[in-house]
């Protein structure tokens, strides 16, 4: 796949229109938004959409990139005095964010397999940050709790409670009481 920077001006414009249309339709319909409808809304052909985004997952990674990057940046701050509480707070923020952004949890669970390096973003960023937080909080977290376990837990709760962030938050807090030492 071509790098975004290597695209001609018309290719960049097409890509930007595709992403804008996808953001709108994913917000309305979730991650299963019609790719054909996205192409129509962006005023490009289906082949153009697939040339820029060979898979639905590649498009979703771009759609969710900025919000996830901001979420990860907040977690990257210097550690405080209570790493266990920081881990729990960030997992809560991740869960609420994914519960309110239809389809993000499924995209994160899918993983980065098959994506070009410039497309890998959301999943890799979240796993990297979560890995750091889990290591920092090792003394406060059950020894068998892994990054993958916590990612799966947060995303499962978000999927089960899409559009209901209050319930997602409550269930995550309940579940996290079980991982504490």
Structural notes for this entry:
With 181 residues, the chain is an all-alpha fold. The chain has 2 domains: 1-53, Arc Repressor Mutant, subunit A (Orthogonal Bundle), CATH 1.10.10; 56-181, Tetracycline Repressor, domain 2 (Orthogonal Bundle). 67% of the residues lie in helices and 0% in strands. The chain has 9 helices and no strands. Helix 4 runs parallel beside helix 7 (122-136), helix 5 packs antiparallel against helix 9 and helix 8 (147-160) runs antiparallel to helix 9 (165-176). The model has no long low-confidence stretch (mean pLDDT 85).
Mean model confidence by pLDDT: 85
SSE ordering: HHHHHHHHH
Number of strands: 0
Q: What percent of residues adopt helix (DSSP H or I)?
A: 55-70%
Characterize the main sheet. Answer: none
Hey, roughly how much beta strand do the residues contain? under 5%
Number of helices: 9
* Global Rg: 18 Å
Task: Please outline the helices and strands.
Elements: H1 9-29, H2 35-42, H3 46-52, H4 56-75, H5 83-100, H6 104-110, H7 122-136, H8 147-160, H9 165-176
Helix pairs in contact: 1-2, 1-4, 4-6, 4-7, 5-7, 5-8, 5-9, 6-8, 7-8, 8-9
Keywords:
single chain; 181 residues; mainly alpha; Arc Repressor Mutant, subunit A; Tetracycline Repressor, domain 2; 2 domains; 67% helix; elongated
What's the short story on this structure?
With 181 residues, the protein is an all-alpha fold. 67% of the residues lie in helices and 0% in strands.
């Amino acid at each position: 796949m071509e790098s975004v920077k290597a695209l001609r001006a018309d290719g960049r414009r097409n890509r930007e229109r595709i992403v804008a249309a996808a953001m709108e339709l994913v917000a309305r319909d979730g991650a299963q938004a019609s790719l054909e409808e996205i192409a129509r809304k962006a005023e490009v052909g289906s082949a153009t959409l697939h040339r820029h985004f060979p898979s639905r997952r590649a498009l979703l990674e771009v759609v969710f990139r900025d919000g996830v990057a901001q979420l990860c940046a907040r977690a990257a701050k210097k550690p405080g005095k209570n790493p266990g509480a920081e881990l729990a707070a960030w997992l809560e923020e991740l869960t609420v964010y994914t519960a309110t952004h239809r389809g993000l949890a499924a995209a994160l669970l899918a993983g980065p397999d098959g994506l070009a390096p410039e497309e890998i973003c959301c999943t890799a960023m979240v796993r990297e940050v979560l890995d750091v937080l889990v290591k920092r909080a090792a003394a406060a977290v059950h020894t068998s709790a892994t990054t993958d376990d916590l990612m799966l837990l947060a995303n499962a709760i978000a999927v089960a409670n899409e559009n209901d962030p209050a319930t997602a938050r409550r269930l995550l807090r309940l579940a996290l009481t079980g991982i504490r030492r």
